[in-house]
Write a structure and sequence with these properties.
about 150 residues, mainly alpha, globular, about 0% strand, single chain
């Protein structure tokens, strides 16, 4: 009985961990980096969640969205593991920054830039398109952003 109970407890804790996985992005990121194929479905779930959240965010781009920021950084971190699926992701971020840079919430704008810098540092995107974008972002009235871009 004792062994049976501990096995049931283990099954419950395992299912509890897998239920928390989609909301625990750092843990999922770690697992994806170790074994991308095993966590493809979880990645797809997060990617679709990002797309839906982005559409909602675009209705009011001056708002702060911590969830969107977390998802953007998560996707930037795992982008090389799913290169085919993430082909358009850097372009989406660049387009968003080009079109909405001056109205975006400063924290969101900074996270988008940091995600692009991260992907550039990993040679996932070419430097020429980023340089053009970042020079355009110097007109934003955001001292922290300008100093971050300058140091990059």
């Amino acid at each position: 009985k004792l062994q049976k109970k501990s096995k049931q407890e283990m099954d419950c804790s395992t299912s509890r961990q897998s239920n928390q996985l989609p909301t625990n992005l750092p843990q999922l990121q770690n697992l994806i980096k170790r074994d991308p194929q095993s966590y493809y479905e979880e990645f797809q779930l997060q990617y679709h969640h990002y797309k839906a959240l982005l559409q909602l965010f675009l209705l009011n781009p001056c708002q702060d969205s911590k969830t969107l920021q977390d998802l953007v950084m998560f996707l930037a971190q795992v982008s090389q593991s799913y290169a085919e699926e993430m082909k358009s992701f850097p372009d989406d971020l660049q387009t968003l920054l080009k079109q909405q840079a001056t109205v975006l919430h400063p924290d969101v704008r900074m996270v988008l830039c940091r995600a692009l810098i991260l992907m550039r540092n990993r040679n996932y995107i070419p430097p020429d398109s980023l340089l053009e974008l970042f020079f355009g972002l110097f007109r934003c009235q955001d001292k922290l952003l300008r100093s971050t871009l300058y140091s990059h």
